[in-house]
Design a protein that fits this description.
mainly alpha; 10 helices; rod-shaped
Amino acid sequence: MEAIADTTVTQQIEAAVAALDDERERLEAERAAFAQFRKRVTAMDVHAPPSPAITRVKSAIMGASETTSSPEQVKHVRNAYRETVMSVPHYEEDYNQSLDDDLAEEFSPELASALATTNSLTPPVHQTLLTGCQKAVESRTTLLSAFDREADDLQQMRDTLEAMNSTLTEMNQRPLTAWSTNEVISTYERLSEFQTQCDDHAAERQAALHSQRIPGPSHTDEELNKYLYESLSVTYPVLADLAELSSHLHTARQRLEQALITR
């Protein structure tokens, strides 16, 4: 009898696992980079500007006015961003944009403009930077948690499909003509149960996809599944492998039906 089982029945899920692992590595690098950037920004000493009266007194005494922060601090912020966030290994491949464009996307256009046009790091800009860094770290932490849940789902589905496929593999061990009628019937019933399970798993997966969204301000309207797997040959790997196994189950049941008819 021609083989029914397919050793690549979880091929798309295997590709999804690899893609998920790669994306997790990138996201962890970004989270660490933002944490490091925040640490460097936190270390910068920024004070509120003195009142005009105090400034005039100090100017009279010292012959020059004091600034709220060193003009070099904004330069240090920009350099720190380049050396942390923009230095992750995958930056050019995934983003490849200017520092100002990246700041605008990660924080806000207003903050990017402030860092491009001012010479001193004011307390409001400093605090906005720190708050934005914290949000960047937290959003990536939340997304990594979503990755963990997806990894668990992939593993469970891979195990389920492989267990079902093992029954099809057993059918290839000897010709159907050597099977007893009871063996044919019991195997047919088992495959029918598997077919129902595939349909149920597909329905559950489709329902889950409708509620999967990317956490964070940048991607709230994009499906997590599409975000993770758009580079693969199929966008919905779990559904693709379920459909593949379902097709094999259908073929196997047809052959079992034919075996019963010809007896």
